[in-house]
Fold this sequence. Notes:
Radius of gyration: 28 Å
Helix content: 55-70%
Number of strands: 6
CATH architecture of the largest domain: Orthogonal Bundle
Shape: elongated
Number of domains: 2
CATH topology of the largest domain: Tetracycline Repressor, domain 2
CATH class of the largest domain: Mainly Alpha
Strand order of the largest sheet: 3-2-1-4-5-6
Structural class: alpha/beta
Order of helices and strands: EHHHHHEHEHEHEHEHHHHHHHHHHHHHH
Amino acid sequence: MIPICVDLDGTLLRTDLLFESFARLARQKPWLLPLVPFWLLSGRAALKWRIAEQVSLDVSILPYNSALLEWLHKQKSLGRRLILVTAADEILARQVASHLGIFDEVLASDGRRNLKGGTKTEAIRRLISGPFDYAGNAHSDVPVWRECNIAIVVGTGSLVKRLRRPADRVIVFERPGRHWRDYAAALRVHQWAKNVLGYAPLITSHELFHFGLVWRCTVAMGLFSLCSSAQYMINDLVDLDSDRRHATKRLRPFACGNLPLQAGLALAPALLIAAFAGAWALDRNFALTVAGYTVAALAYSLYFKKAVLLDVFVLSGLLLLRVIAGQLVTGVVYSVWLLSFGFFLLLSLGFSKRCTELSTARSDSESLAGRGYQVADLSQVNAFGVCSAFLAAVVFMLYLQSDRVRELYRSPELLWLLSPLFLYWITRVWILSSRGLVHEDPVMFVLKDRPTWWVACLSALIMALAGAKSWSGHTP
């Protein structure tokens, strides 16, 4: 029977092993990243070999092309010889072949020879003198398809047309094109709603109708959105293994293979450069805040994420930086009350997320994948979060007695009605967390929660009745 030669990157896999191994290098041995350009000087094959030698890759959780893999299993059961022929490094290619258990031979790059295009054709011809079928996915596979018996194409119609082969000599496995929704998911566009925190200084100081300040704040939060999207991409790239083991995170665009890793590796630094350049042009102190956010978020992705308690504190600090950024670009004076209240509130919401994750993991495992928490920590995490919530409430009530409130409102005594509203809202969040119902980012949860909006509307009404002394405002 005619043997089948199968490409790996983009064909049998919905990803590329060079970029998969590079992402592991960044996660496992980041101090070696400066050496990558020097490895590349020796050629692409040498680069692949060098990186493959340094990393540990779990091939069992890679995103495989399930339709093609099922078809190959059927061909194997019919007695056909299967050969894995790939430009990926031999170290990783043999790990994949061993895991799948369906391949008779493996031809791959070996550190000296990059098995791609014409070089791949020559390697196949040295192994097979007669006809062979070939499964590939890229324009670089065209030289191999010209030599093969039946072309097995994983891709779109444009690639099939280029082959100019009779329909009975082509088998097509359609690959969905990249959709804008995949890019939106990778950028976490919905998370940009968190930047509403940047407007808190304008709201609390009654400067919300000052158009110039609102515009500067909006531009700043837009730049913050670019920076945070870059961080989310970096986080997804370094967390590929844990995401692929997670019940829902495995569906993220990079984890499931809907987007190529190289898109993230290119977009993330481009977004960071754009965000920092814009921030520098807007305000130098704001630019330093963006730089600090970038460093802290990167440290979180690489290290603090696995540190018990520190992860929640760092996350709360990253969210609070949005409030600080809003103060910097608008010139609104710092409010110790606002920063203290915001810190305890965000800390509480951070603990609520961990509480939900531990509640869900209770029946699945003894620890959280990629985290330092164990199920036994649930009661303590719950206590820390509830205490933080009530500390936020105490700070808020102390603020209501301050001179600043009497300066801003005509009838400040009405603001005491906000206390039971806040306590109702935060205790409700914790009831839902204890039931395991806060499944997503808690800040996003409260922004989409209907009762939260009712509480916000009632709070706005109470503040209006309290009578602000001035909403026109000037830069302090």
